[in-house]
Amino acid sequence: MVQAYILIQTEVGRASAVAEVIAQIPGVLTAEDVTGPYDVVVRAQAETVDELGRLVVANVQRVEGITRTLTCPVVHI
């Protein structure tokens, strides 16, 4: 299982709506509004890195109101 944090910037005033939509996507564990340089932080999981990439590109990035994403895979060192 691969997990990642997805840091999301949204259009002004859209963070809450974006987080609500993303929280419903299969593979998303949490989606929370935050303050700082990013507006929403998502924790997601998938079976493989490729599947995680598809989750981000095909599902998360298509949500209305998102301007930028940064995917940070979790590593176990």
UniProtKB/TrEMBL annotation:
InterPro entries reported for this sequence: Dimeric_a/b-barrel, Tscrpt_reg_AsnC/Lrp_C
Ranges where the Transcription regulator AsnC/Lrp ligand binding domain occurs: 6-75
Species of origin: Streptomyces benahoarensis
SUPFAM superfamilies registered for this protein in UniProt: Dimeric alpha+beta barrel
Domain of life the protein comes from: Bacteria
Name listed for the protein in its UniProt record: Lrp/AsnC family transcriptional regulator
Pfam families xref list: AsnC_trans_reg
